[in-house]
Design brief:
Layout: H1 10-13, E1 19-22, H2 35-47, E2 52-54, H3 63-72, E3 81-86, E4 88-92, E5 112-116, H4 120-134, E6 139-145, H5 155-168, E7 172-179, H6 182-190, E8 196-200, H7 213-221, E9 224-228, E10 245-246, E11 249-250, H8 253-268, H9 273-279, E12 287-293, H10 297-307, H11 313-321
Parallel strand pairs: 1-2, 1-12, 2-3, 3-6, 6-7, 7-8, 8-9, 9-12
Antiparallel strand pairs: 4-5, 10-11
Helix pairs in contact: 2-10, 4-5, 6-7, 9-10
Length: 331
């Protein structure tokens, strides 16, 4: 067994590029994308300097991993950071009728079903399956994916112990969990095994419910966070509209009204709402990166520019003073 006494601390192991490309859209989330569309978006991201890519078997029943793997096979392995997730095993569904599509929001044939599994054998099998789809021999970060949604009350401790074993073997560099549930993320950090946790939809301008408990846990254990879905499934990606989605559903009227008030403050300081949404989690010293999806080269370029936008300190003060968005630190 490797001597852990000389292993770098969690935050150092998880040192991630500041902007990551979320690859759920490449699994045909909500609508079909052609291979050519996906290739153009990935090429634009690479050309713009993006070197952090996040995917999962869940995204399009493996389609996102396969598409991302084909693209990254053309790039030097030492030049990018790759993360994927385990906990949902993909297995052929003998009940598939040959026509129906995935019922979980991805427009792909439902020839595979998802089976939960957080024991050591399932975790290892999930990683091996992902490595095959990605066409690589290792990933940099491996997350448990939504363990709270399974019926396994011990999914977090069992899963993290299994991930720690893979880390000991050198099959992955950093481990953690990705979830929308703050309690699950705190429990993951409190195992003392996590290098990084991915906070989805819960560290945004509209929902900060992952904080401060998660901040406190990260401070105690030296764990870092990646903030994902900072546009809250679309509402904050542009000027808020009535037909936008929030938490993957139609935006409620009160949430829409609050988003418009936040946008008004941003515009008063000469900042577009999506730029503030991207930058907000990065005010927190425990947040090492943000991960956002993109459908086109244009969206990639916009997000790269936004993450580098200079935002006046007074904007965050005004949002805090108006009790719209709590202040989380200094930029």
């Amino acid at each position: 067994m490797a001597d852990r006494r000389h292993t770098p601390p969690a935050a150092e192991r998880a040192g991630l590029p500041r902007l990551g490309l979320g690859c759920a859209p490449f699994g045909n989330m909500f609508r079909v994308r052609s291979d050519e569309e996906v290739e153009r978006a990935l090429e634009a991201a690479w050309a713009a300097g993006v070197r952090h890519f996040d995917t999962a078997p869940h995204y399009g029943l493996g389609l996102s991993e396969r598409r991302l793997g084909r693209f990254l096979a053309t790039k030097p392995r030492s030049e990018f950071t790759l993360s994927t997730k385990v906990g949902r095993l993909l297995r052929e569904d003998p009940r598939w009728d040959g026509r129906s599509t995935d019922p979980e929001g991805f427009v792909v044939p439902a020839r595979y079903g998802r089976t939960w599994g957080f024991g050591p054998d399932d975790i290892r099998a999930g990683l091996e399956d992902s490595l095959g789809r990605l066409g690589t021999d290792r990933v940099d970060v491996l997350y448990l994916h939504d363990p709270e949604r399974s019926d396994d009350a011990q999914a977090v401790p069992r899963g993290m112990a299994a991930l720690a074993g893979l880390r000991e073997e050198g099959l992955v560099t950093s481990i953690g969990a990705g979830s929308m549930d703050p309690g699950t993320l705190v429990a993951t950090v409190e195992t003392g095994l996590a290098d990084v946790v991915m906070v989805a939809n819960r560290y945004t301008l509209l929902d900060n419910s992952a904080v401060p408990d998660l901040d406190s846990a990260c401070a105690r254990h030296g764990t870092v966070m990646v903030a994902a879905a900072v546009f809250h499934s679309g509402l904050l990606a542009r000027s808020p509209r009535e037909d936008a989605t929030f938490d993957y559903h139609q935006v409620p009227a009160d949430v829409l009204a609050r988003a418009r008030r936040i946008e008004a403050v941003c515009l008063a300081h000469g900042v577009e709402l999506p730029a503030a949404a991207l930058r907000y989690p990065l005010l927190d010293a425990h947040v090492t990166a943000v991960v956002v999806g993109a459908d086109s080269p244009e969206q990639v370029h916009e997000n790269v520019a936004r993450v580098g936008t200079r935002i006046p300190d007074a904007l965050w003060d005004d949002l805090d003073e108006q009790r719209l968005v709590p202040r989380r630190g200094r930029p």
